[in-house]
Amino acid sequence: xxxxxxxxxxxxxxxxxxxxxxxxxxxxxxxxxxxxxxxxxxxxxxxxxxxxxxxxxxxxxxxxxxxxxxxxxxxxxxxxxxxxxxxxxxxxxxxxxxxxxxxxxxxxxxxxxxxxxxxxxxxx
Length: 124
Fold this sequence. Notes:
By secondary structure, the chain is α+β, with helices and mostly antiparallel strands. Helices cover about 20% and strands about 30% of the residues. A hairpin with a 5-residue loop joins strand 5 (about 60-70) and strand 6.
């Protein structure tokens, strides 16, 4: 268990706790820093805001850290808020955390509204 106030939300699927960065597994949100277009960045910002909101509802949350690291050397972890894993309760592909989430990945960006959500590369 960790205090929710010690969590800094980097984006919708990445958090930082006391200088240690974790990629939350089980879902994937649109990018905020390296977004392919303004629409993707806007969706990424919505996902980030929603994760911050979820964390703010609790004083303590659970973080289960795996043994592996991703290609950016972040720890891979599952965040549990109110006894429910964030990945199970709010998959961004089912509604950024509300509605039909669609974002581009190398499509030329002008057609982002016609693409289906990208499946998470972490779901197995």
